[in-house]
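Hey all, sorry for the wall of text incoming. These are the two entities for the joint prediction.
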Amino acid sequence: MPEDLAEIYRTTYRALVRFLYRKVWDAERAEDLAQEAFARAVVHKPDNARGWLFIVAANMARDDARRAARERRHLTLLKAEPQASEPAAADDALHAESERTNVRAALEQLTPRDREVLLLWDSGLSYEDIAAQTGLARGAIGTTLARARRRLVEVYEAGHRGEHVARG
Amino acid sequence: MSHVDDGMLHAYLDGELAPADARGVDAHVAQCPDCRRRLDEERALIARAAELLARATPPDRELPPFRAGDVKPHTRVWWQVRLPLAWAATVALALGIGRYLGREAPPARQAETATDSEVARGRSLARRRESRPEARGTVRTPPAAAPALAPASPAPARARADYIALPRPELVESQVARERTGELAAKVAARKAASDGRDLWQRGTVISLDSARRVLGADPFVVPGVPVEAFYMGRGVGYSAVVIVQQALDSTTMIEVINARPAPLRLDQVVVAGAPAPTTAADSVSGAERSLAGRAHAADSLEARPLRAGVQARPNLFRDVRGSLSPDSLAALRRRLQPLRPPTGP
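and here's what came out:
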């Protein structure tokens, strides 16, 4: 294994898992896909391994999402019930879970391109890398990020307010 | 200069503006209160967005070790390790029961493939059974072995139930790794080595270094200074644990270093998975942290266990190098074998 890929693995693996998680919303699946992406990188030895990994990961997540969507249709029916009756001990976990759901819902209100740019930036890619990956002009990344961030926060806050009103 | 637009502000705050442009923003903001206020707002927005994203994160897990082709082997390793051991236990159990219950069926005939060593194991088991009948229920048997055990009444059923109610895989591995070998094992190993064994070792799936360590109970041996391509789980008749280290001498020449632990030949050397074991230093030492001193200490404390009195303390591993090289070169490589150093922590 090339030495630099090992280094990239060390510095990028977690970011890649996070990036994938925000697409597939399943921690184990995200880890599997991240490892698969690195395994492919070992074979292909790409020049810009970091950027390449995120491109491959994004593609894998898209394929995965299509497949998972079919399966999920059954599962949501089964999963919906027991969560409601969880005791207070699980409160924190439930809270974190609902936070995650809210952020996820907000992220899904972004256009695919805005979301992609935001997630890539949050994964530690530079404007240059993001531009190369998305096909956007480098000068457009700042504007895209500004819009994506604003929309994310607005949608989230709106959802949050709605929740509090509903509770109170 | 005109007001700074949002995109430029964000690029500025992200540190992604070219130095000349950044200086321009500095100069403008210094004399424009409006843009100064916006700068603060956008800074807060960026922080808030990052904070929200941080809530949508998977649980932070330890970075799994990365080797070429090392893709999620963890879920499988444990049973690959256990299976040969379980089979050995089954044969021993069948032989022992045969001897114990009925003299009309000599053990050698019951299992046609049984070797001397296996018979010896059976005897040992029979002895144990006479002194400690309760030992029977704790021996694990794989489901496929049930027919052979049918006459032994409730034992197979219970053994099978125990087989399903497994402890955590890592526990099994660490217990397997703790078993020791006897002198007979060394003889078997010598015989194996003597017979020309091109196909003696079968290569299985790729495993991580940590798994390799756990399987062997020691650092695998490698030829120092030669890049390691991958670790494989291996199989070899008469060996309970085999790890094959693939190393690249150059771009076209691969060699394989075999690290093999001979199968235990006496029942008291078979570590029974799931049986309550005294906590030893080995349990608390994780693979990555294991130092030579730590291992020596673990071995000491293991030796103190009553069942193991008189058993050789150091794992008696068999090692070999194979590859498409001349016998002389292979012999030279064999002499150079060294334990792979534990990685220095980050």
